[in-house]
Amino acid sequence: MRLLHTSDWHLGRAFHRVNMLDAQEVFIDHLVSTVREHGIDAVVVSGDVYDRAVPPLAAVELFDDALHRLAALGVPTVMISGNHDSARRLGVGAGLIGRAGIHLRTAPAECGTPVLLHDAHGPVAFYGLPYLEPALVRGEFGVEKASHETVLAAAMGRVRADLASRARGTRSVVLAHAFVTGGEPSDSERDITVGGVAAVPAGVFDGVDYVALGHLHGCQTITERVRYSGSPLPYSFSEATHRKSLWLVDLGADGAVTAERLDCPVPRPLARLRGTLEELLSDPELARHEEAWVEATLTDPVRPDDPMARLTARFPHTLSLGFDPDRAPDDPAVSYARRLAGRDDRQIAEDFVAHVRGTGPDTQERAVLRDAFDAVRADETVREVAR
User: Fold this and answer.
1) pLDDT tens column, 44-89
2) 363-386 and 345-357 are packed helices; what angle lies between their axes, rounded to 10 degrees?
3) Each residue of 334-374: pLDDT tens digit?
4) Closest by alpha carbon to 173, among 60, 257, 260, 97?
């Protein structure tokens, strides 16, 4: 069976101040053409179809157009909700839509109920694991500790139990939206940290033939059977080195996996430039970036006059301008920035306690801080879902 693995469309999202709807339309055209030209048997979309729980109308219309075009090709599509989606909204009408070959899996309770497709070698069971927010689904899975690893392990327990009840030789594909250990994040993904741990080991998914992951925006191979497709478009300058693509996956009669990357259309290249303003304006080596979307970081010791206007005269698509002046190592601003570098909110709070009290928090106090940050994040998730 030939699969096309994609995820993280984020329909409705902008890139800085640039509306990406036109580029998203081009991607959907490319997706449909790829399905047709490569003889795809099934499309899998591993979450974050939309960028937010209540997407703009134009994004909904584009999604509707994509579903109609895929259904018209007669190629089944299996799709899950991600942490940016409203699972309940995305799943409206799933039963009816499923009759057209578009299978939406957005309910945690359905993790162990596969979409069964067939090829010349027999059945393939597709299990959709939507994004599982630990604080919201711990009751469904009966786990004592609400963490990403425990709820995913419980969901995969249901998958394995169902698969064991199937005819011998039934092949299996799991769609999941999670941060798997070994994956490389970017600045574009929303934080899903719980209890200080967001990542789950790839071993959680042992026992199935292919795992189509979503959440991280870079195309990545965790193992030969566990892969991220990444987002088809860039949504932050941290993705400047990404090669945006889809996975073309062939699932053999015995469950063997071969995979090939198919490039996505690039609306405009990204460039991250750093130097003094005069260096950026005069360096001939930078001419190749003049039509790119540009993130510029100026290192001038003193902020120059009207830097954005001067930069856009050469780089008209400059979208982000930052300042990181070259300063002496003992400059207070340098030392403060170094203290904060690479530290998350909880670590910064612990540093504040140490600064005020003279000693850092003990184990119990760290647990209180961790639980407080988790509660705030879970509350934000609940309010987002309820919108």
Assistant:
1) 999 999 999 999 999 999 999 999 999 999 999 999 999 999 999 9
2) 140
3) 555 556 666 777 778 888 887 666 678 888 888 788 778 77
4) 257
State the Cα angle at 221 between 67 and 189, rounded to 5°: 60
Query: Hunting for tokens 């959709």 — which residue is that?
Result: 128
**pLDDT 10s digits, 222-266:** 999 999 999 999 999 999 999 999 999 999 999 999 999 999 999
* Model confidence, pTM: 0.85
DSSP 189: S
Q: Where are the domains of the chain?
A: 2-263, 270-323, 332-386
Cβ atoms < 10 Å from Cβ of 62: 21
The more confidently predicted of residues 71 and 187 is 71
Q: Minimal CA–CA distance to 232: which of 264, 197, 255, 185? A: 264
Among 302, 323, 363, 381, smallest CA distance to 135 is for 381
Q: Are 71 and 98 in contact (CB under 8 A)?
A: no
The residues facing 295 across adjacent strands are 272, 320
Q: How far is CA 296 from the centre of its chain?
A: 25
- Going by the DSSP 8-state scheme, the letter that residue 362 receives in this structure is -
State whether the Cα torsion 100-231-119-112 is positive or negative.
negative
pLDDT score for 338: 59
Is 90 exceeded by the pLDDT of residue 386? no
Residue 251 in contact with residue 211, Cβ under 8 Å?
no
Asked whether 8 and 231 are in contact (CB, 8 A), the reply is: yes
Quote the CA–CA distance of 53 and 72 in Å, as a whole number. 27
Residue 330 tokens, joined:
């003992």
**Contact assessment for residue 44 and residue 173, using Cβ atoms and an 8 Å cutoff:** yes
> Which of helix, strand or coil describes residue 363?
helix
Taking the domain 2-263, which CATH number applies? 3.60.21.10
Number of other residues whose CB lies within 10 A of the CB of residue 185: 15
CB 31 within 8 A of CB 246: yes
d(C-alpha 213, C-alpha 50), whole Å: 16
Query: How far apart are the C-alpha atoms of 380 and 334, rounded to whole Å?
Result: 33
Chain segment 109-149, per-residue pLDDT in tens: 999 999 999 999 999 999 999 999 998 999 999 998 889 99
Q: Which two tokens stand for residue 116?
A: 């069964």
